[in-house]
Amino acid sequence: MAKPKNAMEIFKLLDKSNCRECGKKTCLAFAGAVFTGQKAIGDCPKLGPEIIERYATEPARHDAVADIRDDFLEKLKNEITQTDLAEAADRLRGRFSGGKLTLKVLGKDFSVDGEGRLFSDIHVNPWITVPFLSHVLYGKGLPASGKWVSFRELKNGQERYPLFQKRCEAAMKNLADLHPGFFDNMVHLFNGKQVEEQFRSDISVVLHPLPTVPVMVCYWMPDDGLASDLRVFFDRTADENLDIGSLFSLGAGLTQMFEKITQRHGLGGAFSY
Ligand code: SF4
């Protein structure tokens, strides 16, 4: 559990929309109420579980975090019932047919209908469902600019970067170090595309967890006594197309998925999904 030094530290984590869903008129008032103990950090439904876990007054139990996430998921599904999915399909480069909006997630169809029910060829789990629904509801669908930035350069990314570095970049680097087929499999199983090396990396692969939210993974092999390194980049438009909590969830979720697959199939060579 981290104890905030002041209300501003809490405020920086919020999305600053002043949406009032926490029962306070502004995000600033909410931050003050959390700091003085009148509100719990989890009362803001827009914060991801990792922030709630970090700042909860009582260390959040795993099932408490899961409950918060499930409640948030239900809230998003309710909002979907009020949304024009045909308009969302146009906005987000998806398609709308048979009452369902479909977007490509890592190259596979992922759909939602007007009642918030989800359909997919890939395993439907929270790391993708929350970002998917948030994107449908609030994503602007801006086309990729071609300019890559790190997580910390995105709006509200700086504060969350240490945890992102640990849960996504460092964990993925371990997999890449140990697993010779790591990037080949990323390309073949998840419709990744190897691109010309960026930032002088040895390997650069672009994935599309959502059609307008590309993610680039760059890997530097160990060289001349220098340790290997791995960094994950987002398009400059990422924070307009998705909130920072969902971008965190995509990075950490992708990493967890790769970890599970390598555990299941071993680290020695190619694996299948
Ligand atoms: S619910 Fe969260 S985003 Fe909305 S006003 Fe409260 S603190 Fe701000």
UniProtKB/TrEMBL annotation:
Residues 2-61 form the 4Fe-4S domain. Keywords: 4Fe-4S, Iron, Iron-sulfur, Metal-binding. It comes from the Bacteria. The keyword Iron-sulfur applies. One of its GO terms (molecular function) is 4 iron, 4 sulfur cluster binding. This is Fe-S cluster protein. It comes from Desulfonema ishimotonii. The lineage of its organism: Bacteria, Pseudomonadati, Thermodesulfobacteriota, Desulfobacteria, Desulfobacterales.
